[in-house]
Amino acid sequence: MSRRRVNRVIAAVTLVKFDAISAAMAQDDLDSTQGLERRKDRPDHIQVADKITGNQVYIKVTHAGLCHTDLGKLNVDMVLGHEPVGIVEETGPDCKRLRKGDVVGWGYLHNSCNECEFCWTGREILCPKREMYGTADLNFGGFGTGAVLRENYVYKIPKGLSPANAAVLQCAGATVFSALYNNKVKPTGRVGIVGIGGLGHLAIQFAKAWGCHVTAFSTTDSKRDEAMKFGAHEFVVTKVPEGETFKVEEKLDIILSTVSGQLPWEQYYKVLKASGTVVTMGLSDDPKMTLPYGTFIAMSTRWSDPS
Ligand SMILES: [Zn+2]
Ligand SMILES: [Zn+2]
């Protein structure tokens, strides 16, 4: 599948049923999207579970979201997809929480040591021995047929939330929720959301539901209706004539950047309160982040990531 076509798929579909996307990709003979069955003749990194042991569960995938980060793994010999939801079909002898028939989801983190300070404080995602999508369990991607995981890295989907809607919460939703939660955003806070795509849609909804004043930023006016529909109170077009800067009604406590690229940080720092926070979530090809150093120090601002 060409990168252009993948981009088109992503533009058109933020959430798809597993069967549909799997079929579309298989059609293009993209080997890395084949499921467990097709990997049986590839002993190099096969992890097909003949037997479910310990607290492992076997999950049959029914739905999967499509995340922009998958593009970065296109050349990795693996099954793509890291926003799956499925049904538990088999449980290991030590499973305590999950049962056959439970609807569950999982995301980037597949395993960690359970013995370090990060694991002990609910920050397993920072564990030095973490096992993540793209580096571990390469044939257990969300566009495959199923996966085997330890039950403590799998989330039960509450009744009343459809698997289709739950899928995008496994990465996009978890990322923006963590950004708000870990940075202790108050319901009275003013939150800026940069980028009105998949992550931005969810970030606006979470921040609005939490009670915050939400300012959405986009380079052009084309996303205004979308942003307001999702709950933004204010929409700011960031592309301004040279020498001018964009403005907000009132300065912000926190800015969440969901775009995969660098921003004109100088301008964004002008709409951030003293001691405000900038959270970056999109991966960028540009390895350098240039901050307005004087402002960063003088205004006692913080930079953070969602973890
Ligand atoms: Zn993702
Ligand atoms: Zn650990």
> Which sheet architecture does the biggest sheet show?
6 strands, antiparallel
Residues in helix, %: 10-25%
The class by helix and strand makeup works out as alpha/beta
Bulk shape: elongated
Query: Poorly predicted ranges (pLDDT <50, ≥5 residues)?
Result: 1-47
How many β-strands, per DSSP? 14
Heteromolecules bound: zinc ion
Please give the alpha-carbon distance between the first and last residues.
32 Å
| Proportion of strand residues | 15-25%
Q: Please, could you describe this protein's structure?
A:
The structure is a single chain. This protein has 307 residues and is α/β, with parallel strands linked by helices. Helices cover 24% and strands 22% of the residues. The chain contains nine helices and 14 strands. The chain has helices at 3-12, 18-27, 117-120, 163-167, 169-182, 198-210, 224-230, 265-269, 293-298; strands at 15-17, 56-65, 84-91, 103-105, 109-111, 131-132, 146-150, 155-156, 190-194, 213-218, 234-237, 252-257, 272-280, 302-304. Strands 1, 2, 3, 4, 7 and 8 form a six-stranded antiparallel β-sheet that branches. A six-stranded parallel β-sheet has the order 11-10-9-12-13-14, covered by helices on one side. The chain is elongated. One zinc ion is lined by residues 112-113, 115-116, 118-119, 127, 129.
